[in-house]
Amino acid sequence: MVKILHSADFHLDSAFTALSESRARQRRQESRELMARMVDYANGQGVELMLLCGDLFDGARVYAQTTEELMAALGRFHGEVVIAPGNHDPYTHHSPYAREKWPENVHIFTQNQLEKLEFPQYNCVVYGAAFTSAEAGELQLPDLSDDDRTVLLVLHGEAGVPNSRYRTISVESLARSGADYAALGHIHQYGGVLQAGNTCYAYPGCPEGRGFDELGEKGFLLGEVGKGTAELRFIPFARRRYEQIEVDVTDRDAYEAASAALAGCGDHICRVILTGETDKSIDLRRLTQQLSGCAWELELRDHTRPKEDLWQHCGEDTLRGLFLAELRKEYDNADEARRRVIEQAARFGLAAMDNREL
């Protein structure tokens, strides 16, 4: 068994254009520090192989500080590092992968075809390939099985996505490969450890979200891989999460409702969507200022509707009127708790008649 850490899609030097200039600068620096934090964690866990599956850099323009901090961190890792460059950071003569002198424990694939690395100290062999431009065609995997050693694959690409511009890897090809574990990158959401034949494979997702299309916990995979087995668990590791929260302000104070929903979000980047009915005008700018301490960065959106008399059509000779009349009979004889349930039922019913979401 070999103990691995599997990560991908750092996208270092991302612009973070949705943030202010100072906030974006801070997020870029926090992203640079991610590798150092990860190495410290890996060393503490006794990791032997670190598998980094592409898109470590967001593009061709890379700050010298970014490369220097990444190399310094990887050089402190007690084991061996394998990198498979991706579509955002392909291996070219001008890329940091070719220009810089990387630490001796860092091994970088350089060809758009399978290459082989042997690690006898871990009784394993690692196969992988690099993007050498922004696109790559389908990769057909040969039989890589080994009777004695653990076989790992390290690739950036799209498993099970036919005709992808970003290296299609068919599930059938993975199954035929005989690999014990395929460490993949490109998909930014962790989707569990999957299986193709006897080969386990997974995307760890990105270790840090960069926008509201990358919500929730982000991290990497950690565990042991051996002949025919991959025992891995997801480790949440993001410095800050992106969270999107819907808050119903019907019959509630908007500030109190939103601040309660933001509990525990002080270090994170949050979008709060206000919903429901209200008879008060919501001053988003003022409310954002009031809630500023509840999140590291906060965005508010007002999706509320003006409050209207729930029973105004009661008794009309229409389906709406008959529906409300039946509910109103029960409402008039109900206690306060039951009335709230009936009001909610009426709102849902009216929304359904209007073919709208509540």
Give the structure's gist in a few sentences.
This protein has 358 residues and is of the alpha/beta class. Helix content is 27%, strand content 25%.
Can you walk through the features of this model?
With 358 residues, the chain is α/β, with parallel strands linked by helices. It folds into two domains: 235 residues, Purple Acid Phosphatase, chain A, domain 2, CATH 3.60.21; 65 residues. Helices cover 27% and strands 25% of the residues. The strands form five sheets. A six-stranded mixed β-sheet has the order 4-3-2-1-13-14, with no helix packed on it. Helix 2 links the parallel strand 2 and strand 3. The radius of gyration is 26 Å and the shape is elongated.
Helix-strand blueprint:
Elements: E1 2-7, H1 21-45, E2 49-52, H2 64-75, E3 80-83, H3 96-99, E4 106-108, E5 115-119, E6 124-128, E7 150-156, E8 158-159, E9 168-169, H4 171-177, E10 181-185, E11 194-196, E12 199-202, E13 219-226, E14 229-236, E15 242-248, H5 254-261, E16 269-275, E17 277-278, H6 284-290, E18 297-302, E19 305-306, H7 319-332, H8 336-353
Parallel strand pairs: 1-2, 2-3, 3-4, 6-7, 7-10, 8-9, 10-12, 15-16, 16-18, 17-19
Antiparallel strand pairs: 1-13, 5-6, 11-12, 13-14
Helix pairs in contact: 1-2, 7-8
